[in-house]
Specification:
The protein has 129 residues and is mainly α. It folds into two domains: 3-63, Helicase, Ruva Protein, domain 3 (Orthogonal Bundle), CATH 1.10.8; 70-129, 30s ribosomal protein s13, domain 2 (Irregular). The chain contains five helices and two strands, in the order ββααααα. A hairpin with a 2-residue loop joins strand 1 (3-4) and strand 2 (7-8). Helix 2 crosses helix 3 (50-63) and helix 4 crosses helix 5 (87-94). It is flat, with a radius of gyration of 22 Å. The relative contact order is 0.10.
């Protein structure tokens, strides 16, 4: 398995899809990377030569923030919002949606699947026979 940006890329997938296993690289970025490297997107990962893998690794390291660096930047951005106590920062602190979604319904996943009405989500007791 070739390693790019600290991640083992799956061998039997098309390289266009395999690159998306790296955090920070999606479909459009993988297409852009492959066009710069002049590699066919339909090529399987195990068919790539060492030279092509090194070329992909170079392009990704120079042009893109991936994995730990990107996660750290994201974490610092959220921490900055919390420190300045802006609206979005307080929403992050409380564990609520920060982008204007409604909270009366539809936010169970971010609130930890809390069901606040009496009968919702409860299984019925077994009936007596």
């Amino acid at each position: 398995m070739p390693r790019i940006a600290g991640i083992s890329i799956p061998e039997n997938k098309r390289i266009e899809i395999a690159l998306t296993y790296v955090y920070g690289i999606g479909h459009s970025s993988s297409k852009r990377i492959l066009s710069k490297a002049k590699i066919n997107p339909d090529t399987r990962t195990n068919k790539l030569s060492d030279k092509e893998i090194n070329l992909l690794r170079e392009i990704i390291e120079k042009k893109y923030k991936t994995e730990g660096e990107l996660r750290q930047e994201k974490m610092f951005n959220i921490k900055r919002l919390k420190d300045i106590s802006c609206y979005r920062g307080t929403r992050h602190n409380k564990g609520l949606p920060a982008r204007g979604q409604r909270t009366k319904t539809n936010t169970r996943t971010i609130r930890g699947n809390v069901r606040r009405t009496i009968g919702s989500g409860r299984k019925r007791a077994a009936e007596k026979t």
